[in-house]
Amino acid sequence: MIVWFTITQVIVACAVGLLCVGLGLAGRKPNDWTLGALALVELLLIAQLVVALIAPGLGNHPSGSVPEFYVYLVSALIIPPLAVFWGLIERTRWSTVVLGVAAFAIAVMVVRMEQIWTVQLP
């Protein structure tokens, strides 16, 4: 994984989480801003998938469990579309909060993926 890209993903996911939770608690229903912000988080995760597939071929091998890393990554890729689906089906203030919680969950998962890739010893 690329450290600066990981930091960018975490900052963006936390910013989206704060935006969505704040708007949800203020009574706003899901809108283009909240759904689009979570789509940006998903786009960054897709880019992370591409990086994770290419990096070992360029000599950047994970030090932790490869299956565990990809389970985290695939799980993280599934969360935003499910949260957006929820936001589109149940258009209440609480679905906006759910979008924020999903973004915070992605931030935590990206940090864990970075740990699996770089910190663990074989």
Classify the secondary structure makeup into a structural class: mainly alpha
- Alpha carbon gap, first and last residue: 17 Å
Number of helices: 4
Count of folded domains: 1
Shape: elongated
Rg (CA only):
15 Å
Q: Bin the helical content.
A: over 70%
**Strand/helix succession:** HHHH
Q: Would you report the number of β strands?
A: 0
**Percentage of residues in strands:** under 5%
Q: Uncertain segments of ≥5 residues (pLDDT<50)?
A: none
What's the main sheet like?
none
Q: Mean pLDDT across all residues, rounded?
A: 93
Describe this structure in words.
The chain is mostly helical and 122 residues long. It has one domain (3-118). Helix content is 79%, strand content 0%. The protein has helices spanning 3-25, 32-54, 66-89, 93-118. Helix 2 runs antiparallel to helix 3 (66-89) and helix 2 packs parallel to helix 4 (93-118). The longest helix is centred in the C-terminal third of the chain and has 26 residues, at 93-118. The protein is elongated, with a radius of gyration of 15 Å. The two termini are 17 Å apart.
Quick gist of this model?
The protein is mainly α. Helix content is 79%, strand content 0%. It has one domain.
What keywords describe this structure?
single chain, mainly alpha, elongated
Note the topology.
Blueprint: H1 3-25, H2 32-54, H3 66-89, H4 93-118
Helix pairs in contact: 1-2, 1-4, 2-3, 2-4, 3-4
